[in-house]
Amino acid sequence: MSQADLVLESLSKDYSGPAGTISVLRNVTLSLQRGNAVAITGPSGSGKSTLLYIIGTLDQPTSGRFTLMGAEPAKLSAAEQAGFRNRHIGFIFQDHHLLPQCSVLENVLVPLVAGSGVKPADEQRARKLLERVGLGHRVDHRPAQLSGGERQRVAVCRALINEPAVLLADEPTGSLDRQTAQTVGSLLLELSREQNVLLLCVTHSSELAGQFPLRMELRDGQLVPIAAS
Question: What pTM does this model have?
Answer without folding.
Answer: 0.91
